Amino acid sequence: DMGGHDTFMHKEISEQPDAVDRVLRGRIDDRFSTVHLGGLNLDPREARTIRRIKILGCGTSYHAGLIGAGLIESMARIPADAEPASEFRYRNPVVDPDTLYIAVSQSGETYDVLAAVQELKRKGARVLGVVNVVGSAIAREADGGMYVHAGPEVCVVSTKCFTNTVTAFALLALHLGRVRDLSVTDGKRIIEGLRKLPAQIEEILKTEEQIKEIAAEYAGAQSMMFIGRVRGYPVALEASLKLKEISYIHAEAYPASELKHGPLALIEPALPTVAIVPDDDLLEKNRAALEEIKARSGRILAVAHQEQAKADHTIVVPKNEDELDPILMGIPLQLLAYHTALAMGRDIDKPRNLAKSVTVE
Ligand code: F6R
């Protein structure tokens, strides 16, 4: 049942305020400015001995893991990174007893992720799951973890589950941070930010008409470039994947800082750029990238907290805490992919060559 929407993708994008509310519900502890994660199966003493965190997933779940790694590093100060699960499996990884492994999956059935979990467990590692489907194979195989409570996702491409997974990582990062060295003040600040998310997502969804008009301009593009820096880079990766999957427009994502090391050669009026430009300590750096693109006559769409003079269009999103901004900045770009694909007459819920869950190698 699409509940009055034309596609499941549109329904699922629109459900995000409620979905994020669900992932937060019952988990916030104001008394200690932390969160409770019942199924984590990781006592505080163990949480304090973790030396590294390695996050594994595929596709959109891998991108959520990249943002998750950033959240964990900034709030818990534990070195963390994310890697595609299949790459990890096939490189005979060094499995380290002081590393906590986290498997991320919407379906909980993705074969490459499941096989990575089984290999890790065979070698004695501790593996947590960040999973949407309750009771799925990866959830059962993991030593503990958290459900992201996005609810059923029917559209082949993931939207609300991405947002909820990133929010779940913010909770995990806050929890680990508060067991370690994150201050009460910072804990409170993050909790306040988390509580603002559902209403801020609601606000972003109201910009849909503006995004639809912008999408009409991009519908004919051969190729598009997505750029971001540090926290913004995984947002760019995910936005570029979403556009490819449903519109079949070729898209690339680059860290803004890498532009001058090659991809700047591609910039011309026919290759539009989408730039993630949060109002944080990297604002001036990001603006410099916009200038470089403008100097080569590239068209620019900025997703930002204020109008960007160098951009042809800016989608202004509400500001949250710097750490939590990536959760919000991806949402207008789900709508951009959606309306671009719609304008091109694509079958949005069932893109060619793709399946909702990839249970084979
Ligand atoms: C992207 C998409 C895929 C999945 C990937 C992992 O929109 O749908 O890239 O994210 O196949 O699937 P899960 O999260 O079920 O393991």
Automatic annotation (TrEMBL):
* Catalytic reaction list: D-fructose 6-phosphate + L-glutamine = D-glucosamine 6-phosphate + L-glutamate
Q: Which residues form the active site?
A: K356 (for fru-6p isomerization activity)
Which residues constitute the signal peptide according to the record? none
Q: Which UniProt keywords apply?
A: Aminotransferase, Cytoplasm, Glutamine amidotransferase, Repeat, Transferase
GO CC aspect terms: cytosol
The EC designation for this entry is 2.6.1.16
> This protein's superkingdom?
Bacteria
Stretches assigned to the SIS domain = 42-182, 214-351
- One annotated GO biological process: carbohydrate metabolic process
Where does it reside? Cytoplasm
Specify where it is mainly localized. cytoplasm
**Coiled coil region boundaries:** none
Q: Which GO terms describe its molecular function?
A: carbohydrate derivative binding; glutamine-fructose-6-phosphate transaminase (isomerizing) activity
Subunit structure comment from the entry: Homodimer.
Q: What does this protein do?
A: Catalyzes the first step in hexosamine metabolism, converting fructose-6P into glucosamine-6P using glutamine as a nitrogen source.
The protein depicted here goes by the name: Glutamine--fructose-6-phosphate aminotransferase [isomerizing]
Q: To which species is this protein native?
A: Streptomyces antnestii
Q: What is the lineage of its organism?
A: Bacteria, Bacillati, Actinomycetota, Actinomycetes, Kitasatosporales
State the gene name recorded for this protein. Answer: glmS
